[in-house]
Design goal:
The protein is mainly α and about 140 residues long. Helices cover about 55% and strands about 0% of the residues. The chain is flat and about 70 Å long.
Length: about 140
């Protein structure tokens, strides 16, 4: 009789897909579960931003409600909007982290490179990022 392996069946069902480089930012996070889900949605670019809602015909107003200057999209919402960038910079200053001038992708790439370990600085950063995404 042939040997049966649950691990082998699971691997075939899962199809050994490519691991996302940002997975540790999301799933190795001690923040509130509702916070942790939002970076996952944001990293898949599935947040209900105004640019997406216009495509769905839910609204016809694209203007960012925080700064009232530019159209709201995921790139603008987190690291393009002057109001939100101010909030983020204060949160980083509280953690004594000095990075400025990065857009959404730049921030994520920086975090992947510097904040995927299990030390307390990385854990606080990941919780702060998740909380900011959730509350904005």
């Amino acid at each position: 009789m042939e040997q049966f392996s649950i691990k082998e069946v699971y691997g075939k069902m899962r199809r050994d897909t490519e691991k996302m480089e940002w997975r540790k930012l999301v799933w190795s996070n001690y923040g509130a579960p509702k916070w942790i889900f939002m970076p996952y949605i944001a990293l898949h670019r599935r947040l209900s931003t105004k640019d997406r809602m216009v495509k769905w015909r839910i609204t016809n107003v694209l203007t960012c409600p925080m700064c009232l200057l530019e159209d709201e999209g995921i790139d603008h919402m987190f690291f393009g909007c002057s109001s939100n960038v101010g909030i983020w910079n204060r949160l980083l200053a509280w953690q004594v982290i000095r990075i400025t001038g990065l857009d959404w992708q730049g921030q994520i790439q920086w975090a992947i490179k510097h904040m995927t370990s299990k030390n307390s600085t990385a854990q606080v950063y990941k919780m702060t990022l998740a909380g900011m995404i959730y509350h904005l």
